[in-house]
Amino acid sequence: MNADTVQAMGDRVLVLADAAESQTKGGLFLASSGGSSGPGSNVTGKVASVGEAVKGVKKGDKVLINGFAGTEVEFEGGVKGKFVNSADVLAVLS
Prior knowledge:
Elements: E1 12-17, E2 42-50, E3 62-66, E4 71-74, E5 80-85, E6 89-93
Antiparallel strand pairs: 1-2, 1-5, 2-3, 3-6, 4-5
């Protein structure tokens, strides 16, 4: 299954997760956390598809979403994403 050919339905948004950073801008190496961790965990990513009932978010937007919400999916090439309800989109990032 290819992420480019999948269409979100209803009030759902397909977000392709940004690659986890392993080093800070200051040069410190980050430990691998194995995914979402701790209360208030969140994820940033690019919107690949939006359902017809979604308002305020469009394909191509970079967004911040609740890391514990939604359904995780893996596409061809190991690309990881999540289907979330539009209410789980916390912010559109510039």
